[in-house]
Amino acid sequence: MNSLILNAATRILVALMLLFSVFMLLRGHNEPGGGFIGGLVAAIGLTLYAIGHGTREARRALRADPRAIAMVGLALAILAAALAVIGGDSFFTGQWLFIGGSEGEKGLPISSVLLFDIGVYLVVIGAVLAIVFALEDEV
Amino acid sequence: MSWLLVAPIMLPISFAILVFLVREKGGWGRWLSVVGCVLHLAVSVALLVEVWNQGVIASQMGGWPAPFGITLVADLFSAVMVLIAAITGLAVSVYALADIDRRRELLGYHALFQCLLAGVCGAFLTGDLFNLYVWFEVMVIASFGLLVLGGDKEQLDGGVKYVTLNLISTVLFLAAIGMLYGVTGTLNMADLHTAVGEVENQGVVVMIAVLFMIAFGIKSAVFPLFFWLPAAYHTPPVAVSAVFAGLLTKVGVYALIRVFTLIFTQDVDYTHSILLVVAAFTMLTGVLGAAAQTEFRKILSFHIISQIGYMVLGLALYTPLALIGAVFYLVHHIVVKANLFLVSGVARRMTGTESLAGSGGLYAASPLLAVLFFIPAFSLAGFPPLSGFWAKYLLVKASLDIGDYVIAAIALITGILTVFSMTKIWAAVFWKPHPETNGSGVVRLPRQEWLSLVLPIGFLASLTLIIGFFPEPFYVFAERAAGQLLDPSAYVAAVAGAD
Amino acid sequence: MEVALALIVGLLVACSIYLMLSRNVLRFIFGLVLLSNSANLTIFTAGRLTRAEPPLIPTGMPAPPELVANALPQALILTAIVIGFGLFAFSLSLVFRTYRELGTLNSDAMRLAEPRTDGKDVVDDSKTQRGEAS
User: Fold this and answer.
1) How many domains does chain A divide into?
2) Is C32 an interface residue toward A (CB < 8 Å)?
3) Are B304 and B248 in contact (CB under 8 A)?
């Protein structure tokens, strides 16, 4: 689509939406949000870019093949699930690490749940963009 | 024991990621795929041994207790299905070394193949109905991709029919899950075993049972619902259609057997009588359809349908002996059917065509291939002492035991007609001389290609021979598996006590 | 409310079956989408409709303080919608590819994989049918 307004607007909108998607991803830990929603927001931003500037330009901006992004995300998710086996729990059990934590003080909690969510985020971006780019290329 | 249950699912997914990421690096992808299948086979054997020694094992994902969390369960039936899927997967992955062209490799054949294996094993191992739906979808999406991969016109044509009819099945499955949740409040299969009996309005339960029957019936290609199968199975490369023929419909049969032995056993007179009629028609229409076909893979596709009839028959009779027969039949059938498709691929490569009229002379060109065709083909038809004979014998005996002579007669007639089809292929493809008499008719394959095509065929054929000549341990095994199906108390207890 | 939703589900299924009876594959796909949405609504209705708080647990409490809505049907529907989205996108691009390769959307005219053996050609009447994608 060749529209000056869309072209100009997407440049700002894409950056905003990508930032917002990361915010959604991290916020999902304790409040509504999460990897799935975040991934969708990011994918919508990049789709907008693809509509405004064409898929070739969008692929170039993305740098990686969207399917490869999805695969890396899947690998992260599996890794997060498998970490539980190392900890001796059953598969998918969340593993927690409290950095700098002491009695009554949680410190900075880092968990395999977050890793899983990042994996979901990447899978959603990759899968949605793979579908969108394929459809845009065809039509 | 958690990892033993998870490994048969997670290994193929991990290898799917690996082979996808290295797909542009020459032959790495296809060899990694073989390595993945070898490891998969190893963990499947370990799982089966564990289940044989320990009884039913179960694990709760994420440590959430049943019935709230997702359960993975392996009883003997699940474990043997996983093992047989791994065996088929290994054979096909070796076959694919020579059968899949570079273009399809770049499009991601090996990754999709591994995803398909993961979906199949997930469906076998899950103990939760909604999770079963999810694994069905993983399997179905991978199979869609494999079926139309490469995008030949014939593939697209068959793909449209396959995709649309399978989508109806998944939607029906989903609706049935929703309604079952509405009346029982749970989706854990072991929990449903008791919960379904406590529902006041049993009429609703029967209605839901029939909805499940239709959904799984489309998947397993039983009588009035099978039309997608002969439309699609002969179009993709052989390495795709062999794994479809061996595994996909059998997942539907597995789901039918699981659901109609564990959950819907309240009104056996009604539901299982429907299944009995369906089984009879499936056997007959499949084999008659095959008789009308004139192409190698099309004949085999119709035979899948008639063979599904036998397995459903075992479930429908619902006696211990019949279920033993059904389990035995499933194991024997997957090996034999995948093998026949693999043979059809070699035959096409050597004679240049799939039509019976245009090919011939294979016996003269390669007696070894002829023998390797003979074993699964006549096992399929039920010749003693091959594996199919024992499977058919058990089912026919089970129907005679309860005095159902009509269904026994139909099973025997179907067997005879199967012999007719197999002799038709034998006579046309192997025995008669190739119609092009100028000597260029049958092509000899290069040594490496020949090895990677014939090794898996020989491997599967020797399995058929082993089951045929030493049926005793397999019978004992099937007996125990069927015992667990008929009396699910061990299954329920394992799920309730899982952590 | 349950009755109203049940009626809507029925209406959706009726519309989808009408669409799926068409020989035009694209209409068939649209019918499937409606059908899958009606299945999602079925789950939603079957999970009981209650006016209650969202199932969130406040800080410092082990369980929600009062009656909360049943979150499970919604989780199931979310999963089903995601899967349905993927399947629909796939089938749409498949149908599009097929249309470009075979030049028709009429399922009766798609006989490449199963050619007729009686020698009769299928008349492609899709051009005269309403709803032919152009």
Assistant:
1) 1
2) no
3) no
In the block, which residue shows the tokens 């290069």? B446
> Which residues of A lie closer than 8 Å to B, measured between beta carbons?
67-68, 71-72, 74-75, 78, 81-82, 84-85, 89-94
A·B CB contacts under 8 A: 44
In angstroms, the separation between the Cα of residue B289 and the nearest Cα of chain A is 38
Q: Residue A98: beta bridge partners?
A: A109
Four-residue CA torsion sign, A37, A38, A41, A47: negative
User: How far B280 CA lies from chain C's nearest CA (Å)?
Assistant: 25
Tokens representing residue A19 in the block: 């930032």
Domain span at residue A28 reads 4-138
Alpha helix stretches (DSSP H) within C55-130? 72-102
Q: For chain B, what percent of residues have pLDDT higher than 70?
A: 99
Nearest residue in B to C31, CA atom: B168
Helix (H, G, I), strand (E, B) or coil at B209: helix
Q: What is the pLDDT of residue A6?
A: 87
Inform me whether the C-beta atom of residue C89 falls under 8 Å from chain A C-beta atoms.
yes
Cβ of B234 and C113 within 8 Å? yes
Omega before C65 cis (within 30°)? no
User: Which residues of chain C does A44 touch, with a Cβ-Cβ cutoff of 8 Å?
Assistant: none
- For residue B61, the tally of other CB atoms under 10 A from its CB is 21
Q: Which two tokens stand for residue C21?
A: 């009876």
In chain B, residues with a C-beta closer than 8 Å to the C-beta of C72 are: 181
Per-residue pLDDT of chain A (139 residues; tens, 9 = 90+): 678 888 888 888 999 999 999 999 988 877 778 888 999 999 999 999 988 888 888 888 888 889 899 999 999 999 988 888 777 777 777 777 777 776 666 677 778 888 899 999 999 999 999 888 888 887 6
Q: Where are the domains of chain C?
A: 1-50+70-105
ipTM: 0.86
Retrieve residue B298's tokens. 């099309």
Q: What is the CA radius of gyration of chain A?
A: 18
Q: Position B67: which residue type?
A: P
Look at residues B472, B483, B445 and name the one whose alpha carbon lies nearest to residue B95. B445
* pLDDT, tens digit (0-9, with 9 covering 90-100), for B274-332: 999 999 999 999 999 998 888 888 999 999 999 999 999 999 999 999 999 999 999 99
> Domain C1-50+70-105 carries which CATH code?
1.10.287.3510
B179 Cβ contact list (under 8 Å, min separation 6): B204, B208, B211, C42, C46
Nearest-by-Cβ selection for B141 from C76, C87, C95: C87
pTM of the model: 0.91
B323 in Cβ contact with B482 (< 8 Å): yes
Mean pLDDT of the C109-130 span: 62
State whether A127 and C97 contact (CB < 8 Å).
no
A137 in contact with C at a CB cutoff of 8 Å? no
Nearest CA in chain A to B65: A90
pLDDT at B460 over 80: yes
At C131 the pLDDT is 44
